[in-house]
Amino acid sequence: MDTLLTADLAANAPNFLRRTSTFVDAIHDLPEKESMAPAQLYSTESGRLFHSGRIVIATVGLPARGKTHTSVALARYLRWLGVKTRIFHLGDYRRAHVGPNGDVPGDYFFVNASTSSVLLRNKILKKCREDIFNFLNHENGQIAIYDAVNPLATGRRALSKEFEKQGVHTLFVESVCTDERIIEENVRSVKISSPDYIGWEPEDAVKDYLKRINARIPHYETMEESELHYVKMMNAGQRVVANNCAFNYLSQRIVFYLLNLHIKSRQTYFVRAGTTKDEDSYKADASLSGEGQDYAHKMADTLLAHRESERQNLINHGAPESTALKPLTIWTSTRRRTVETSEYLASLGYRVRQRSQMSQLHPGVCEKMSEKKIREQYPDEVAKHEQDPYHHRYPRAESYHDLAVRLEPIILELEREQNDLLIIAHESVLRVLYGYLMACSAPAIPSLSFPRDEIIEIIPASYNNQAKRISIPGLPEKLVPGSPEDISMPVPPSEMGSRIGSGAVSPMSGLGTPVLHGSPRRGTQTPEEGEREGGGSLGLPRRQGPTSEPRV
């Protein structure tokens, strides 16, 4: 596996992994420094929010029931809100203990294991618990997610008492599944997402995992302990039971999120809207130009061809000829450009939903202003923007933080959606939604770029999400303008003024530090520019960017 890290990522965000054209999210990377989360409303000296104290969320359930998926999804949402959260996968501790080439004893996963296997399990468990207490007691952690099977009622009661002695609440989240189709889908996803099966043949991975499941089934006890706090999720969110969970605000927020969550696999695609007849105006809400209409057709044809190739790939790997992909639903904002970009797909029978919350950042007084004028008229605002491009807002404009808060209902609906999903939106909206799904830091979000000649596919898995680029062929160069990163030397503000339509520089790009060829990109993008700039990274390495030594 090759790993690529660009200089601007090193400056702005945790490590991101690259696998050819596929990128892995950062949910398991720890922030290098404390900073406000994308949707965080306030901060405290202790680092803990909502007057809710410390909570351990402990998963319960047999293998392949969605425990890890639920753990990772919860961590993604809570971190997005600013709650200091860390996942403790017991399996990671096992893998770390035995080493990359080590194997656990053959009876390690069995209840009637040998004495040596039991001692090994207890040693690994002790290390995991120690790290949980260290995180909560010495690192100002607020929520520790303990991802393990926790199959027995006696063990769960003992776990709750152990944390209660330290003044920590325990909330159990049980994943129950009786639908064999969901179990089979989860088992088969293991070969993709679980570190246990890197390099394994798919069928061998499935057989080994089923063996683990069958070893635990006779000894598993579902949650019925009325004195404990727990949420029971049945068949991927088909039914949810909450018991004794209203012990503080944050616990209720967690339950509300779980009510919107499902663990069924689906794909999400991000694309920008086509170009318009009045490209520089926010207020005009202009219709698509002829080039924009052509883009909408080519984008749709590329996406449908990609989905058909995915279906054929499933058939080639043993699926029946009648295999069908999940239905495709399309979301747009209520702005004319996004709605018209979806019309070709709507004419083919695909369902389109308009979401008013997905409108782009409001540019405020900066609408249609060149960079030269912005610097001349608002020098103080430019200086503030350079210091904090995520939270700063120009007069009468929105910040990216404002947009992230506005998009929370969309994020919850995103978790609830069970069809494959195409999101057609302004680049500013795509940045925030991508930042959520890929666990990007707040400082990284304003510099994410979505070239118009690419569809970004988010591939969900239990352990992390991945992003893949799909190229849209045949677009004219002027629809895919060069990124400011392509500027070979700093451009003085006086020379920038009227080049908006050329694609060389967007109206408010470069408001950060000037960019030198080959140097770290520390400049950021701002409310007005989004739909007029292409090229760049997804908070990820650029396709033609310099490589570095693998860094994990």
UniProtKB/TrEMBL annotation:
Biological process (GO) annotations? fructose 2,6-bisphosphate metabolic process; fructose metabolic process
The 6-phosphofructo-2-kinase domain, residue ranges: 45-264
Give the record's keywords alphabetically. Answer: ATP-binding, Nucleotide-binding
Checking InterPro entries in the record gives: 6Pfruct_kin, 6Phosfructo_kin, His_Pase_superF_clade-1, His_PPase_superfam, P-loop_NTPase
UniProt key word Nucleotide-binding: yes
Molecular-function GO term, any one: ATP binding
**Listed GO cellular component terms?**
cytosol
**Keyword check for Plastid:** no
For this entry, the protein name equals: 6-phosphofructo-2-kinase domain-containing protein
Which lineage do the record's taxonomy fields give for this organism? Answer: Eukaryota, Fungi, Dikarya, Ascomycota, Pezizomycotina
